Amino acid sequence: MSDDDHFLYALSSNNAWAGYKAHQNPHFFPKLASGQTPQILWLGCSDSRCPETTILGLQPGDVFVHRNIANIISPTDINTSAVIEYAVAHLKVKHVVLCGHTSCGGAAAALGDTRVGGVLDTWLTPLKAVRYANLEALTAIKDDKARATRIAELNVEAGVKVLMANWTVQEAIKERGLQVHGCLFDIGCGRIKDLGFGTKGSKGLDGQEDVVRGRHAQLVFRGGMRPCLLNDFLWLKGWSGFSIAWWLFGIVHRDVGGCLFARAFGSKKRSTNWFGLAFGGLHCLGR
């Protein structure tokens, strides 16, 4: 595919997406045009593999976003500071999320001793400072990937400290309970880990993955609680769950198809029932 073809494909994909969204919900774009009320400010990396709205399973208008190389938060960066001030003081977001990621090129560059060149060396200075401040601990990590992941975590921790020292953020924490979070996105599995940095110091959603998956299924496929519970029962039963009786029930209660489709993709089990997946997919397309 040529460079021009990539751009034309992107435009074609946008046209298809816009048509689908408008068909699915005629009020979607008019509502977006009326204004924004995001609940989350996302501070992340510019890496093409970390599109915040996609990996969060959210929609346009849900997240106010600022991304830069290696998700570096510096108090002297007027660009980042302006985004934070607008999101916190004017949009009144409830959460500020600083998210790094695995396999970060900026982290790898900061760990190296060679120049990247141009303005990038200047930009990566705060991350190199993190490296030298933790040099002994990082050197003790022999695996290159593990070392890069660790400096990515330390970079998030340093950034959260900068956020917590920001006057606008401090005022919002005191006045209305703004929450600040430090996270890491694992590109290898698609999951976000709460590192426990920030206002709450929580460790994320360990043990609640099924709850989150179920809510996402209901959000995307508009399924109800009863179909989701029924699907859980069917999944435990394996092949026997997809009897003729259940197929007939699925035809009458179309939400079951959506739940099957969501669970097929969301389940950790790799022994996916492809008949159930196809069934669910057809029902989702039919909605």
From TrEMBL:
Q: What class of enzyme is it?
A: lyase
Q: Name one GO biological process term.
A: carbon utilization
What GO CC terms are in its UniProt record? cytoplasm
* Single annotated GO MF: zinc ion binding
Keywords of the record, alphabetical order, are: Lyase, Metal-binding, Zinc
Q: How is the cofactor bound?
A: Binds 1 zinc ion per subunit.
Cofactor annotation: Zn(2+)
Enzyme Commission number, as recorded = 4.2.1.1
Give me the residues that bind Zn(2+), please: 45, 47, 101, 104
Q: Which InterPro entries match?
A: Carbonic_anhydrase, Carbonic_anhydrase_CS, Carbonic_anhydrase_sf
Q: Which Gene3D superfamilies match?
A: Carbonic anhydrase
Q: So which domain of life are we looking at?
A: Eukaryota
| Span of the signal peptide | none
- Catalyzed chemical reaction(s): hydrogencarbonate + H(+) = CO2 + H2O
Annotated PROSITE patterns: PROK_CO2_ANHYDRASE_2
Q: According to its UniProt entry, what is the function of this protein?
A: Reversible hydration of carbon dioxide.
As for family, the record states: Belongs to the beta-class carbonic anhydrase family.
- Please report the name of this protein according to its UniProt entry: Carbonic anhydrase
Which source organism does the UniProt entry give? Apiosordaria backusii
